[in-house]
Amino acid sequence: MKDIKHFLRQNSLRPTKQRVIIANYLFDGINKHVTAETLSNELLKMKAGISLATIYNTLHDFYEKGLLKKLMINSERIYFDTNTEHHHHFYSKKDQKLIDINVDMKVSGLPKPPKNKKINKIEVLVHLDN
Amino acid sequence: MKDIKHFLRQNSLRPTKQRVIIANYLFDGINKHVTAETLSNELLKMKAGISLATIYNTLHDFYEKGLLKKLMINSERIYFDTNTEHHHHFYSKKDQKLIDINVDMKVSGLPKPPKNKKINKIEVLVHLDN
DNA sequence: ATATCAGTTTAGAATGATTCTAATGTATTG
DNA sequence: CAATACATTAGAATCATTCTAAACTGATAT
Predict the structure, then answer these.
(1) How far is the CA of A18 from the C1' of C24 (A)?
(2) CA distance B70 to A123
(3) What pLDDT, on the 0 to 100 scale, is given for residue B97?
(4) What is the helix (H) or strand (E) element at residue A79, kind and residue range?
(5) Does pLDDT of B104 surpass 60?
(6) Reduced to 3 states, what is the DSSP secondary structure of residue B95?
(7) Contacts of B118 in chain A (CB under 8 A)
(8) What pLDDT was estimated at residue B11?
């Protein structure tokens, strides 16, 4: 991402110091899965003194603007994904780690959705053993 | 379930008053998705004075014995499923409701799992729009 | 039956992720 | 550069869940 400030403005987000730092980290071209906690740790490493409250606010602001996806992986914390394309995941419970599946997969044999309901999207989570 | 006490004993669970009540409710032949909260509400309706702590304990005990499945649906609470067969779900965020998909589905185009990892199971969650 | 003891239940405290509050700070607009 | 709308923050509050430790109960041996 060359011009983060411009990028934030384009998404109706004021380019504050904190948002610039966080956006620079998140949108550096490498897709990431973060939680408030892991992001906080990264920011601590780079000595950006950003409060936890701001980290939560920013993740949600980015999510509201569609810059992040929320993942429903487990009930212990919320995962945010910088890859907002439709895609699937491997999940290793042991490592508490997610890996993107970027190839196209097809699900066949799907039954009709209940009356008056339409399918929005299909998410496949492939659990790994070890 | 005719003999709940026997059923509990078979699963190395002492048939206490509370467990019998909860098992009777959960394993009445109709598959259910419950959270500690929804289960607590049901039990309140039937005036079973069972503490929340016991509800949590019991759900986990049943889970440990493989009588319930844990579902990772959202990050707000833990869902338990009385259907322990491998199956998939429709999920309506709006209704906060899960519907079992009991037909066989196939996922094709799956990439190889990462080195030294083996696929344990594949979970498909079909998000509904409305 | 009864005593014993391991396994259970429970109220209430503790925890941990997240959200809220309200005071202070800062980007934007005119 | 003043005004103001939006952001940040520390710390309190919230909420689901887990823990603690005391009281209780089902199973087993006597």
Answers:
(1) 16
(2) 17
(3) 82
(4) strand A79-81
(5) yes
(6) coil
(7) 128-130
(8) 95
Contact A117 B130 (CB under 8 A): yes
Contacts of B75 in chain A (CB under 8 A): 72, 74-78
CA angle B63, B73, A67 (to 5 degrees): 150
| Nearby residues of B17 by Cβ (< 8 Å), 6 or more positions away | none
Binary contact (A103, B109; C-beta < 8 A): yes
Task: Specify whether the CB–CB gap between A87 and A121 falls below 8 A.
Answer: no
Report the sign of the C-alpha dihedral through residues B1, B69, B43, B31, in that order.
negative
Q: Measure CB to CB from residue B128 to each of A74, A78, A120 and give the nearest one.
A: A120
The whole-number Å distance from A119's CA to D1's C1' is 54
pLDDT at A129: 83
* Contact state of B119 with A127 under an 8 Å Cβ cutoff: yes
pLDDT bracket for residue B8 (50, 70, 90): very high
For strand C, is any atom closer than 7 Å to the CB of B53?
Answer: yes
Q: How far apart are CA B33 and CA A77, in angstroms?
A: 21
**Domains delineated in chain B:** 4-81 (1.10.10.10)
What is the mean pLDDT of the segment spanning B8-20? 96
For chain A, list residues with pLDDT below 50: none
- DSSP-derived secondary structure for A14-75: ---HHHHHHHHHHTSSS--EE-HHHHHHHHHHTT----HHHHHHHHHHHHHTTSSEEE---S
**B81 phi and psi angles, rounded to 5 deg:** -120, 130
pLDDT, average across residues B105-110: 92
Q: Flag whether pLDDT at B66 surpasses 90.
A: yes
